[in-house]
Amino acid sequence: MGGRSIASSVRPIWEHTFVPGPPKAPPGVTREEVSRLLDAGWAEVEIARKLRLSKSAVCYHARNLSRPVDERFARQYDWSAIQRYYDEGHDLSECVTCFGFSKASWSQAVKRSDIRPGPRAASIERYLVVGRRTSRTHLKARLLAAGLKAPRCEGCKIEDWRRKAPVARVASSQRNEGRQSAGEPRDSLSQLS
Questions:
Q1: Least enclosed by CB within 10 Å: which of 21, 51, 69, 170?
Q2: Which residues 6+ apart lie within 8 Å of 164 measured at CB?
Q3: 66 with 98, same domain?
């Protein structure tokens, strides 16, 4: 029967052990104590240790007491410099590496309109490179959206199939014939039919 049974446990199953924390102070008492200690020149870390609070709880009370935030710890970024760097052609990951902010900070800056992000899709030139591995369906959809490819089968020139445009279909000639020999190289555009 491996393992311990409930009957051999030290405590009955309904009994639990809780370790009580410090008693909670009545409303307003903690904030008054934080205010008194801040006035006495105590650091927020020391107040947190003395009152057995988290540092964030001490900061919360300090903010609600309209205390000024210590600028050394309120990390701020020069979003106009980041925007200039981004506009030079660097992507989000490069901006994060260069300036040291998080992607969440970027999202918040976009919501505040501190940053104007560019289009989410990469430029089509990025895909039209010999040797780049790209999904044929994705590339074909991007070429169609950019107007660089007509929505028709390149092999038989059919523009509709069962009243639908053959957007992501493989050319009928490629489907029926042998694809290509194993050693023959393929460029990005020839495989899009």
A1: 21
A2: none
A3: no
From 74, 100, 132, the end of a domain falls on 74
pLDDT greater than 80 at residue 146: yes
Asked whether residue 62 falls in the same domain as residue 92, the answer is no
Q: What is the mean pLDDT of residues 25-37?
A: 89
Bridge partners (DSSP) of residue 107 are none
Asked, for residue 36, whether it belongs to a domain, the answer is: yes
Closest CA to 116 of 89, 90, 80: 80
134 CB-near residues (< 8 Å, 6+ apart): 127, 188
Q: Please give the full DSSP string across 104-167, using - where no structure is assigned.
A: HHHHHHHHTTS-----SSPPGGGT--TT----HHHHHHHHHHHTSS-SS-TTT----BTTB--S
- What's the Rg (C-alpha) of the chain? 32
Task: Give pLDDT, residue 17.
Answer: 65
Average pLDDT over residues 43-50: 90
- Note the pTM of the prediction, 2 decimals: 0.39
Cα separation, 101 vs 81, in Å, equals: 13
User: Total structural domains in the chain?
Assistant: 2
d(CA 14, CA 159): 73
Token pair of 149 as six digits: 């490819």
Structure tokens of 65?
């007491």
